[in-house]
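pipeline: protein-struct stage 2 | run 1193 | Hydrolase
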Amino acid sequence: MNVGFREFMLQIQVAEPNSSQRLLEETKKVFGNMQDTWLKSVDPQEFVDTIRTYENEPIDVTIQMDVDEFYNLLFDRWEAQIVDPEDRKKFRSFYGGQLVQQIKSKECSHISERLEPFSAIQCDIKGKANLEESLQAYVEGEVMQGDNKYSCTSCGCHVDAVKRACLKDVPDNLIFHLKRFDFDMVTMMRSKINDEFQFPEHIDMNPFKVEHLSDQNTDAEPDVFQLVGVLVHSGTAESGHYYSYIRERPTADSRGSWVEFNDSDVSRFDPTRIPDQCFGGYNDSHHSGNLGPIRFNKLWNAYMLFYQRVSSMESARSVYKPVRNDIPVHVALPVALGNQIAINNELFIRAYCLFDPGFTYLVRYLLSRLHEMMISENKENSELDKSVLFIALDAMEQLVSRSKDPAGSDGITTELLRAVEDIPTAAHRVLQWIESHPAAIRNLVLRSPHASVRDGAAKVVVAALAELQRLRNRTDLDDAERMEWHTRYINGFESVVSILEDLWPVLHTVSRSWDDYFDFLLLLSGFGVYEIGVLLENGFLQKCLEMIWIDRDDHMKLKRKYIAYCRLVEKGRKFSYRQLMDLTNVLLTHVDLLADPCSDSKRRQLLENGKYPLSEWEDNLVRTQGRNGELLFLKKILQQYQNPQACRQIVGLLMNAESEADLLEPICKALEDGLRVEPAELCAPFLEATLIFCRRSSDEDQILALIDFVAKGVDSINNSGGKEHLAFFTNVLTQTNERAGLDESWFISQVVEKVPEWSPPLLLYPEKTVRNMTLEVLRQILFNKDPLNIEVAKELVQSCVDRLKKTYLAGPRHNIESRVVEPINSVISHGLEAYRHVESEEDQEFVEHAHDVLAAIDDLTIDLPEELASEDWEDNSIMASDSEMGMLGTP
């Protein structure tokens, strides 16, 4: 590295660091940080922001800039901000030299010379094999003869001459700009020259100086330079990437290692790879099966070369006295800058240690030691527990919750739970920390990407509240102590609920945390009746109901209130309603649907029955009816149905209140609407709700009407929902209803009476399992009964015959697979037994007609091989069986 230039830039005086000399000030910061920082890389953004183009505009970092152009611009801007003339002169001396533009006559002794400053030597590479050849062409120049003769003012005539450029003053640091970009006159576009161009590790610049060229017979001292840096361009003329290889210097010996700087990545580089990585040309041949060997141009090649005079490198070694090759030389920094970098390094190493996996083990060890000490020494009033617990909780929030891999989070959670359970003051400390860190629950429960952290944080807070609740009821404490613990518990509980309420707007943007958030509230709802009141007062029932209500129709005009949520839903974001529905169910369990709602502006009071009234807005959300008089709240929860168990329990709550709350008719309307949706498999939630209605309603006529409604609807389900409808009727067979005084036999009789309506479509259902199960149900409830219900059997046979005619004989006739009609044929055959002893002419005609239909069907029937049958079916119905449902409909 050019330590001398670094030291000069760091020690230069800057009088106006925030205005006219800001670039110099930012340069100091970049150089100082690159030397002393412990970070992987340095961000030069503020440095770049201070550079202005020649039009006095900021640099557009989104547009590729030629590095030679940038180099000239940067050095020009640096020089312009250096005030002291001596400093400016020294600045130029680092990389600046002088050229002599000569025109030497071949016919006389006159020479015309003009001095020009340079900061980089422009080297042609097209048609040149290496650097020496390019420099030789540089100093040989061009012959001026013929029409282009030079007019010698001294001789007063035109003479043949040579025009060339020679080096006069060569700086210690020499830069060669390889002209790899050209303008293609054919394509009229810039192009890149990727030809191979070699350059040596050492080069003697004496042959290219004006003194040598003026008198080549004089022996001169070699002026040797060593390669110390290569800037590489990878890409094309229009786009690409720059990176560099730099020799570390000065070093303790003459050997110097090389380093690759590629954006934020810094790594060791083997200098023996320079020819392959920097010369350009063609890469190794690649063999193609059809085309033979193929060679490609290397798009990565040297663009700027950096050489340093060997004598100056030796001088730097004696001045800076490097101790070891692996320890770079450091120069003194301005005190303020050095102190700031030291502070940043300390903060970095602290953060580095904090994010080390070992830190979480240290925190766990501190917690375990605290547990041992507090238990053995019984120091309930010690401040030690506060310090250790705060450290552990800070580690959870600031480190573990944000780490890519939350290793150790379970261990910290376990130790915190142990401390809360066994150390009396630990629970209070946890809530103290929550109150002093308002954003903690947001970071832990909402923002953390790790489910284990979100779950663990909620458990710790809930455990702390549970312990405070236990402490306030301890009988071995006096009244004052119990009151103190009671106050701590109440304040802590209300504080936690208030924080969760404040996080409600944030929740709408973090879908992954919905279950964690509502599960947290669900745990809090289990603390007691008073605590339920706190949740209700903070509006959580209202919030849950509003989320249930939000849909495309937006009957309640809630989209304007939940703009962020609605936008995410429109973009396809999925939100889980499982825990939300559980919380809604628990809160509704603790409200009296029959009580008059309280004003939204007043605090609700606990009723004599131990429940709370709804607010006016909550009551509106629960009771609002649609255009057909259906209960919209019930309809919406059944349409969403993300948590079947909670939905069934809410239906049970509504059924308990239906008679006195005038909800019977709206509930029936909602169920009827849902029982006719298409495709019919979407009816499953409404079928389950209808089962609960049958079990819980006090109105026998409405129960009968709904069973009849479902039975009549089977005819229109087509090829969807067969499993769900069959499951409904099999579950109805086992129902009882204490409120209406209906036993199992009553429900069985209703199903049997409706057999002619619901069974024929299921006997011809596309899925074999549905057909066979329907046949088995009919055998159990109808054909195996003694005596046979003749009227139902007759109606069933007639319905089956009509179904066959409508399905297969009414229109164009096609072949029928025998397995499809086998169950319904079996039912017709069994049903015709009911006509055996009947002699009426009408019945005889029907029997003959039935046989004719069966014969026609038989003519169309074909047998398919087993392997061609496509009737495999797995019972994946979302309709729960009666045993699975149990008493879920009973709150």
